[in-house]
Amino acid sequence: MALLGKAALAMWWDLAPEMKADFEHWHSHEHFPERMGIPGFRRGSRWRSATGGDGIFVMYELEAYETLSSSPYLARLNAPTPWSTKMMPHHRNMVRSQCVVLESSGGGVAANGVTVRLSPGERDGDDLRASLKSLVGDLAMKPGLVGAHLLEHRTPDIRATVEQKLRGGADQAAQWVLVACGYDARTLDALSKNELCADSLAERGAAAGAVSAMYELAHSATPGDVSKGSV
């Protein structure tokens, strides 16, 4: 099964170690239920760094790209709860990509994952897009993997939100995102060092400096997983 919907919100940030326990409590017990209560949010997943770092990756799977500029979603972004107001300033070095799904094959969650942030090089981006879409289909059936997905960032025509201002201003964005997940961490690690390394992606037409990172799944939820009484 592919990602649940035609769009996704992919985010990376790091967090001070002393904030980890408070963050995970908030994110699991208030933030996920809140987001899953917004029409168009189909599934959320939170991932922790697999290499012992402070990095966090979160992906929300969305019914449609228009969800990112919908009134219910913007209402939440502009009226954060007291707990969210306390936690948002601790999201450091935020990269936030608001994406359409270009290609999706296989499952969206598994025990292990690798993300790649990249952009097209000087050559025609259409060639890179076609190459990566083909790669996604191949990766989903690779032993040790269960799914792969290609996303493209498109900036919605909305004003800066209160939550964004609490994080310190403008977020960065990755132009394209490739996510692969599976049950064998060693396979994903090898993938990140070979087919998905910066040099291999440059040969396909990506700009130099693609950023990849390994993650472990911490929590996943759909609207049906959260209680109706949650925020």
Structure commentary:
The structure is a single chain. The chain is an alpha+beta fold and 231 residues long. The chain has a single domain, classed as 2-Layer Sandwich (Alpha-Beta Plaits), CATH 3.30.70.100. The chain is 29% helix and 32% strand. It has an eight-stranded antiparallel beta barrel. The model has no long low-confidence stretch (mean pLDDT 93).
Summary?
By secondary structure, the chain is of the alpha+beta class. It has helices at residues 20-36, 71-77, 82-87, 125-140, 162-166, 185-193, 198-204; strands at residues 7-14, 41-49, 55-62, 92-106, 112-118, 145-153, 176-182, 211-221.
What descriptive keywords fit this protein?
8 strands; 7 helices; Alpha-Beta Plaits; 231 residues
Structural class: alpha+beta
| CATH-derived architecture | 2-Layer Sandwich
Weakly predicted, low-confidence segments: none
For the residues shown, what is the average pLDDT? 93
Could you outline the blueprint of secondary structure elements for this entry?
Layout: E1 7-14, H1 20-36, E2 41-49, E3 55-62, H2 71-77, H3 82-87, E4 92-106, E5 112-118, H4 125-140, E6 145-153, H5 162-166, E7 176-182, H6 185-193, H7 198-204, E8 211-221
Antiparallel strand pairs: 1-3, 1-4, 2-3, 2-8, 4-6, 5-7, 5-8, 6-7
